[in-house]
Amino acid sequence: MTDVSPISTHLRVVGALLVREMATRFGSKPGGYVWALLDPAAHILLMTMIFRAIARAPALGTSFALFFATGYIAFQFYQAMTSYLNSAVRANKALLSYPNVAPIDTVVARFILQVLTTTLVAVIVLGTIVATMRVETNLHWPAILEAGAMACLFGLGVAMINAVLFLRYPLYEQVFNIVNRPLFLISGVFFLPDSIPAPYRELVLINPLVHIIMSFRQGFYPEYRAIGLDMTYLYGIAFLTLFAGMLVFTLSRKTLRNE
Amino acid sequence: MIRFEQATKYARTKGIKKPIIENASLTLNRGKSVGLLGRNGAGKSTLLRLIAGALKLDSGRIIRRGKISWPLGFSGSFQGSMTGEQNVRFVARIYGVNTEELIAYVEDFAELGPFFKAPVGTYSSGMKARLAFGLSMGVNFDYYLVDEITAVGDSNFKKKCQAVFQTKLRDSDLIMVSHSTGTIRDYCDCGVVLEKGKLTYYEDVEDAIRAHDKNMREN
């Protein structure tokens, strides 16, 4: 027996963790996993109503719901991913006492579950909105899928870095949370970066999430020109972060188990 | 067979670095149950986790032939938010054994009644011990790593443990940590004393107990 467990063990463990996560994420609440879908759907609905009361017209198209939901869900692909995956290893600490269970298995299991969950939320919420709109919408799938995939991979990379750094430097966890919180406001969920004047627009465009949301919206609004959208930049940042995350995670395998 | 080759492990907490084992080489052969002795805080439980592979060495290696259980303690391996049954299912899945058979075995052994379907967080330590013990005995291993678990539980539970051990020990070996030398004597053929980062093997468990007692007197 070697120290490297074979692929079949990883697959079994990830499968078992998936079941465990689904069973316990909403634990004692009646309805269980359904809340993973209901919670964000209800949030979007509520925010749309508030948003509609405040603004006169959406920045794109005619539907408040569609404008807000496209921004929110694209953002959610990243945000829900990191907030759920940051604690993947910590939350499963007790289960790491089984030598079969590797720290990476807990991350993989949560990643799969979160991709499926946000995708389902997106299908339910956006599907409902698009189906009930008066004007027929032509979806441009490549842009939507590309944005979703980049958001997931970027989120995975950030979470893998966090899993290690939160353990090593508790102070960093505080700093990350402070920086991460206002992201919702500056990532272009409510506004279009295109409409921001020149010197500030460059600043806003540094944030990769802005590009994710722009690309996602392009899939729903064929007339949207998305000035400043740079897919090369987005791919670069996402894969660089993912690579850094895998590197840090692999180098810290021992620490992740021992703590 | 379990073999340590120049195995080194330090425990690190808040800047304090303490050796658990330093450059230890040792071979444990099949067919003999081992009692692991050492003073409080010497690192006996850490050593069990190293043998299981739930912890990694700093340097050197441990070669393992045969299926080795996880360290069987009364607190460690359960997820408090999962029910007893869910924990059993989880273990059945990760070790690839038949889920329903294992559940039936553990439910019968642990005698938790309705608590079997309640979160493990609500269990008493005796209940956890019964669940942990039944669970690991339901999966077949060549080596069972036992960490003080026989110390908890009432006499009924202890009798039950003994009975299962008697049948298990025909095909499997124990590596056992216990502060009760009586328990070590009952179950083990040979002994290993862990003192100041050194592992010393004794063919006869009585010699190991004597060496351990001598260590204890010296300090």
For this entry, give a set of tags.
heterodimer, A: 259 residues, mainly alpha, B: 219 residues, alpha/beta, Rossmann fold, five-stranded mixed β-sheet, 7 helices, 26% strand, AAA+_ATPase (chain B), nucleotide-binding (chain B), ABC_transporter-like_ATP-bd (chain B), Bact_Polysacc_Export_ATP-bd (chain B), ATP binding (chain B)
Q: Roughly what percent helix of chain B?
A: 25-40%
DSSP strand content of chain B: 25-35%
* Largest sheet report of chain B: 5 strands, mixed
Q: What's the total count of β strands of chain B?
A: 8
What characteristic shape of chain B results from the CA principal axes? globular
Shape of chain A: globular
Main-sheet strand order of chain B equals 5-6-3-7-8
Number of helical segments of chain B?
Answer: 7
Radius of gyration of chain B: 17 Å
What is the distance, rounded to the nearest whole angstrom, between the alpha carbons of the first and last residues of chain B?
34 Å
Name of the top-level CATH class of chain B: Alpha Beta
* Rg of chain A (C-alpha, Å): 19 Å
Question: Biggest interface and which pair forms it?
Answer: A-B, 26 and 29 residues
Domain ABC transporter (chain B): 2-219
Family (chain B): Belongs to the ABC transporter superfamily.
GO molecular function, one term (chain B): ATP binding
Protein name (chain B): ABC transporter ATP-binding protein
Describe this entry's structure for a reader.
The complex is a heterodimer of chains A (259) and B (219). Chain A has helices spanning 7-24, 34-54, 64-85, 88-91, 103-131, 141-168, 170-180, 183-186, 198-204, 208-218, 231-251, 253-258. Chain A is an all-alpha fold and 259 residues long. In chain A, helix 2 crosses helix 5 (103-131), helix 3 runs antiparallel to helix 5 and helix 3 crosses helix 10. Chain B has 219 residues and is an alpha/beta fold. Chain B has one domain (2-44, 71-218): P-loop containing nucleotide triphosphate hydrolases (Rossmann fold, 3-Layer(aba) Sandwich), CATH 3.40.50.300. Chain B is built from 7 helices and 8 strands. In chain B, the strands form 2 sheets. Chain B has a 5-stranded mixed beta sheet with strand order 5-6-3-7-8, with helices on both faces. In chain B, strands 2-1-4 form a 3-stranded antiparallel beta sheet. The chains are: A mainly alpha (259), B alpha/beta (219). The A-B interface holds A 1, 3, 9, 12-13, 15-16, 19-20, 23-24, 27-28, 92, 94-101, 253-254, 257-258 and B 49, 52-56, 61, 64-66, 68, 70-71, 76-82, 86, 89-91, 93-96, 119. Chain B: Residues 2-219 form the ABC transporter domain.
